[in-house]
Design goal:
3 strands, 140 residues
């Protein structure tokens, strides 16, 4: 029997019929290499949209903004950038982001006895930094 190749079309067909738990059970029944297993799961997740497997909003090297891998329309770009600019200029938003950073640092210093608590603190700081970084990246 000839081995069939894993294609997006086949994965999409399988994933439309099965929910994610059934897909995982099905995969466990076969002797797949870790690479094949990962490829099938990644295709299922991407095609069905269980969670984003690619950036939701990204900036192409030529400066073009993409939403879920497709170029944004002029109207979408204008709306997106004006919303970003409003966030950037919003004093309450800035103050709250600063407060979250302060609380995360305080939490890490005073309650960071375990690795989990330190990671929680660092994650909150990272989230605020990443949020600000993305606002600046896409607002230009």
């Amino acid at each position: 029997m000839e081995e069939k190749k894993i294609t997006k079309k086949r994965v999409k067909k399988i994933s439309l019929v099965l929910d994610m738990d059934e897909v995982i059970k099905l995969l466990e029944e076969f002797s797949l290499t870790p690479e094949q297993h990962s490829k099938i799961l990644a295709l299922c997740l991407k095609e069905v949209g269980y969670f984003p497997i690619q950036d939701i909003v990204s900036k192409h090297l030529n400066g073009e903004l993409l939403f879920n891998g497709r170029p944004m329309t002029t109207e979408e770009i204008v709306t997106f950038r004006s919303s970003l600019h409003a966030l950037k200029e919003n004093i309450a938003f800035t103050m709250l982001m600063d407060q979250i950073t302060f609380e995360a640092i305080k939490h890490g210093i005073h309650y960071g006895e375990t690795v989990e608590r330190l990671l929680f603190s660092k994650s909150a700081i990272y989230m605020v930094q990443k949020f600000r970084e993305l606002i600046n990246l896409f607002d230009n």
